[in-house]
Write a structure and sequence with these properties.
alpha/beta; eight-stranded parallel barrel; six-stranded antiparallel β-sheet; 17 helices; 33% helix; globular
Length: 515
């Protein structure tokens, strides 16, 4: 056990070194182009089709979301991210047919404008998925590009006669091959083409004029096989967006776990999703030993260095954190529906620094595993899994719902009045975070504990305030002895310095100095 404690002590010193180095960088926000509202916001990701149906056709819609803004505010949400809303021919929407039109199944443009207005009236922000790495193969540009090899649309895509490249797909019309990294129905755009670049500026401007507060950039790292082209494009895009709205938030889907590679994108845009931390939280919640604090400090230090590099267009990085999204197995499924472990994962998300994103239904412990449609099943509002506003999966050859079932304890109706529910745990965590806003941009350090537990403190910049997160990740009971008078923010219980606190298996505390 002594050896274990020495190892942990070394990790603490390492974390402190990272923290001191990070602090010494003088994290000034002076001249920052980063939208600072985003760094202290809680975001909520919505698949419109699955969230809430306002007109009884079984499909979620813009008016349905507007009707549930009270729910989101009750939870503590500050901003929402809408998964693709543009005109498309698929259920998921990641294949654009028209960038200036919306998915008619979700409502009208007036309905969307009303949703934007309703969010703003409540002081909430709203961002949208911007899918500009590729289009649908039914997009007007791609249809015209196939008509001849010398028309103006041809160079907007990437055609080849080389049959050895696996990512090139035959078109249905004439047998030619085009680059489409995700699917034969999604041809990639050519960002060496100036018309493409200008048109995507126009698209961004159109939606900013509609009132969107920013964009989630789908497949951001796949703009071009040459990463220099990719990075240069996103720098141009960020500068353009901020020339139109300096407060617009941009967050990239850069699904990279190599720190140096993902950190490069902080030269190009204000934020990127932290897929590495997502994985680390999941592993920790499963009971594996991970020094989260040291890893987070190292990540944030690297992000800041890149954001403040000479060739950066961003000066202050926002770390967008999460524990799952629409492309992943849900955290509740990863943790096999274990309510206690789901709560542990949520506690880590909301007590570590960063801007946290919640995937709809996550706050209820909704399950979901591959294939993708089952990761995106209906938001479960009712005990019976039926009722006003419930959506259905009855189109696009769905194989049927697997996880949206009655009487499973996973619905808003079943959890809203249960103080021990996952929903109310999320509410409490968000409340704690907002009452201690330094958590969003704080610095953290690991505190040595017995094997099977993990403990870390998150501090404000001058270390005059902190929260102390204590997690029993094991199936065994443990105890800790506190060295200061403290209060558990989750329960309100108070403890005196020197007091021994019993921690049953799979429980957690968020301690702070008693005032």
């Amino acid at each position: 056990m002594k050896t274990s404690r020495y190892i942990k002590a070394i990790s603490v010193l390492t974390a402190l070194c990272c923290t001191l180095t990070f602090t010494s960088c003088s994290m000034t926000k002076k001249n920052s182009k980063t939208p600072l509202w985003a760094e202290t916001s809680v975001f909520y990701e919505i698949f419109v089709r699955s969230f809430y149906d306002s007109d009884g056709d079984g499909i979620g819609d813009f008016n349905g979301i507007a009707q549930k803004l009270d729910y989101l505010q009750e939870l503590g949400v500050d901003a929402i991210w809408l998964m693709p809303i543009n005109k498309t021919e698929s259920y998921h929407g990641y294949d654009m047919v028209d960038y200036y039109d919306i998915q008619s199944e979700y409502g009208t443009m007036a309905d969307l404008e009303n949703l934007i207005d309703e969010c703003h009236k409540r002081g909430m922000k709203i961002i949208m998925d911007l899918v500009i790495n590729h289009t649908s193969y039914h997009h007007e540009w791609f249809l015209k590009a196939q008509e001849s090899k010398d028309n103006e649309y041809r160079d907007r895509y990437l055609f080849t006669e080389d049959k050895t490249k696996e990512e090139y797909h035959h078109t249905a019309e004439n047998g030619e091959r085009f680059f489409g990294i995700f699917s034969h129905t999604m041809p990639d755009l050519n960002y060496k083409n100036e018309t493409v670049r200008q048109e995507m500026f126009n698209v961004a401007d159109f939606w900013l004029q509609k009132g969107m507060d920013g964009f989630r950039l789908d497949a951001a790292k796949f703009i071009d096989e040459d990463m220099a082209v990719t990075h240069e494009w996103w720098k141009e895009f960020t500068k353009f967006v901020h020339s139109k709205n300096p407060e617009a938030f941009i967050v990239g889907e850069n699904w990279i776990t190599k720190l140096d590679e993902v950190a490069e994108f902080y030269k190009d845009m204000p934020s990127s999703f932290n897929f590495d931390l997502c994985d680390l939280i999941g592993r920790t919640a499963q009971g594996k030993t991970v020094d989260l604090a040291s890893r987070v400090n190292n990540m944030r230090k690297k992000y800041f260095e890149n954001a403040n590099a000479e060739d950066s267009v961003n000066k202050y990085p926002i770390d967008s954190t999460m524990i799952n999204n629409h492309d992943m197995d849900r955290i509740a499924s990863l943790l096999r529906g274990n309510t206690d472990r789901i709560k542990l994962a949520a506690t880590m998300l909301f007590t570590l620094p960063g801007t946290p994103f919640i995937y709809y239904g996550e706050e209820l412990g909704q399950m979901g595993e591959t294939p993708d449609p089952n990761r995106r099943e209906p938001m479960d509002w009712y005990k019976s899994a039926k009722g006003e506003g419930m959506t259905e999966m009855n189109r696009y050859d769905f194989k049927g719902m697997k996880y949206t079932v009655a009487d499973d304890g996973i619905s808003y109706e079943e959890q809203k009045d249960d103080p021990n529910s996952i929903f109310n745990h999320y509410k409490k965590l968000i409340e704690i975070r907002k009452n201690n806003k330094f958590i969003f941009t704080g610095e953290c350090e690991t505190v040595p504990t017995d094997y099977g537990m993990y403990r870390f403190k998150t501090y404000n910049k001058d270390k005059t305030e902190f929260i102390d997160t204590v997690l029993n990740l094991s199936e065994n009971n443990f105890s800790i002895t506190v060295d200061y008078d403290c209060t558990d923010l989750l329960t309100g219980k108070q403890y005196s310095s020197g007091e021994k606190i019993e921690m049953p298996k799979l429980t957690n505390m968020i301690l702070t100095k008693t005032k």
